[in-house]
Specification:
Layout lengths: L2 E3 L2 H7 L8 H6 L9 E4 L5 H11 L4 E4 L16 E4 L6 E3 L5 E4 L4 H10 L2 E3 L10 H7 L6 H4 L7 E7 L8 E4 L15 E7 L1 E3 L3 E8 L2 H8 L11 E5 L18 E8 L3 H10 L3 E6 L2 H8 L5 H9 L5 E7 L2 H4 L1 H5 L6 E8 L2 E9 L3 H13 L3 E3 L10 H11 L26
Parallel strand pairs: 2-4, 3-4
Antiparallel strand pairs: 1-2, 5-6, 6-10, 7-11, 8-9, 8-10, 12-14, 12-15, 13-14, 13-17, 16-18, 16-19, 17-18
The chain binds flavin-adenine dinucleotide (FAD).
Flavin-adenine dinucleotide (FAD) binds next to strand 3, helix 5, strand 10 and helix 10.
Length: 428
């Protein structure tokens, strides 16, 4: 049955994730504090319900894990037990309808490669493209493709095979609206064994790098990208303070504001015209598809991580936000936190989102900023807590049936999370 390991080093490694990006979580869930007792790695889909049946009978908690890139500690095995490493389930099939079905442990890089070879574009993938589809649907949300397609909750998933923790040792196929309690709920309602996701006919994409002398000029172009003839796949932007640590393939001017767009090829000239007319400069247009991946790898949480990596002596935190004031009143947003505050922008269908990046001065100061941001009309999602924060009521109701003993990923589902994180930050 796949593999079972009690190797101490392996257990330590897979019992933590990327929660170290949050100084708050670094204190609360440091590597080594919570450890699984055993790592089970299924090799076949049917191994998953078989493991769950045994775990149910013996009241053993099970925490699912893909690549472990989740940044909220949500794959931490708080109550020990089995760490279910799903990376062995990595089959990938392009279906006659064009959708792609993949084992929960398939890497999205591999899925995209197979899909592109078949002439298809997977709707959305995260900036951590080497993460797994089970982890992305189970714990992720948005990324490259989100401007057009929304989040993982917006029709991305066609169907999923789910193994419940109810002692039945079965798997069920879930489709359509019934998928809701299984998306972004950290596996507390069941283990995703395989997932079928939507694709479009493949398009030609280009990685476009532009630079602007000021925030206002950057924003004036960023906000027009929603009416390009074809929506970009991604439109990330950074203040100069975040630019030097970006691992770009072209030299980026550390004194200017960086705009990076994955644009559909036929829109590149129009984009370049807008950049030029808006006082900016197109630094590079790279048509190779691999370059769009490289650009994607500098989006979402990544600029925060690059800053943290370059300055290990300083402690930075970020808050995930959305709303027009990020474009219109950036100084008011920056004033919420002390010291230098930097904005990494993304584009969503309904406006901008941003990682608000500031120096860490304790959890209290981090949390105190949330109502202040909200008072400005900004939606906030806190990446400093591990609780299920989407469709909590439905997840709770579903888990009563699919996990009556509460053995799946314990500690992540509560109907009263300490910080209200159910705020719409603009991606949905
Ligand atoms: C630098 C950085 C950048 C990031 N950028 C993005 C981004 O652009 N967009 C985004 O959405 N996220 C982003 N993330 C968060 C994370 O990388 C993604 O959500 C990623 O897709 C998670 O996949 P994973 O395989 O690493 O999952 P894991 O971290 O292993 O798991 C994530 C969650 O899903 C659960 N889970 C894992 N597998 C299953 C399964 N088969 N069934 C049920 N539940 C399961 C886990 O228990 C956990 O709760 C980023 C994180 C970092 C550190």
């Amino acid at each position: 049955m796949g593999s079972v390991s009690t190797d101490v080093a392996l257990i330590a490694k897979v019992s933590s994730d990327w929660s170290r990006m949050s100084p708050v979580l670094q204190e609360k869930v440091p590597p080594g504090r919570y450890l699984a007792d055993v790592v089970v790695r299924p090799a076949l889909p049917e191994h998953v319900p078989a493991v769950l049946k045994v775990a149910f009978e013996h009241d053993v908690p099970v925490t699912p894990r893909g690549a472990g890139t989740g940044n909220y500690g949500q794959a931490t095995p708080f109550d020990g037990g089995i760490l279910l490493d799903l990376r062995g389930l990595d089959s990938i099939t392009v279906n006659p309808t064009g959708t792609v079905t993949a084992g929960a442990g398939a890497r999205m890089t591999a899925m995209d490669k197979v899909a592109r070879a078949a002439g298809r574009d997977i709707w959305i993938f995260p900036s951590t493209k080497s993460s797994t589809i089970g982890g992305f649907v189970g714990g992720g949300s948005a990324g490259t493709g989100t401007i057009e397609k929304g989040t993982t909750s917006d029709g991305y998933v066609v169907a999923a095979t789910v193994a419940p923790m109810d002692g039945s040792g079965t798997m069920v196929t879930v489709r359509g609206e019934d998928l809701t309690p299984y998306i972004h709920t950290y596996g507390v309602t069941g283990i995703l064994v395989d997932v079928e996701v939507r694709t479009d006919p493949a398009r030609d994409w280009a990685a476009v790098y532009a630079a602007f002398p000021s925030y206002d000029e950057l924003v004036a172009v960023h906000r027009t990208l929603l009416d390009l003839p074809q929506l970009p796949r991604l439109a990330s932007a950074d203040e100069p303070a975040l630019v030097p640590t970006l691992p770009a393939p072209v030299a980026l001017d550390p004194a200017r504001y960086s705009l990076r767009v994955i644009a559909e090829a036929s829109t590149v000239d129009e984009l370049a015209r807008r950049v030029h007319n808006g006082g900016g400069e197109v630094v590079a247009v790279l048509a190779d598809y691999a370059e769009t991946d490289r650009l994607s790898g500098m989006s979402y949480n990544h600029p925060v991580w690059f800053l943290q990596r370059a300055h290990p002596d300083r402690s930075w935190f970020h808050m995930e936000t959305g709303g027009a004031p990020l474009w219109d009143h950036p100084d008011a947003v920056r004033a919420v936190y002390d010291g230098p505050v930097h904005l990494h922008l993304e584009l969503f269908r309904h406006g901008p989102g941003a990682m608000v990046v500031a120096g860490y001065r304790g959890e209290e100061a981090v949390l105190a900023g949330i109502p202040e941001l909200e008072a400005l009309g900004i939606g906030v999602h806190s990446p400093h807590q591990w609780y299920v924060d989407r469709n909590v009521g439905l997840a709770t109701e579903t888990a009563r049936r699919t996990d009556p003993k509460g053995l799946l990923n314990p500690g992540k589902l509560t109907s009263t999370p300490p910080v209200d994180t159910r705020v719409n930050i603009g991606v949905r």
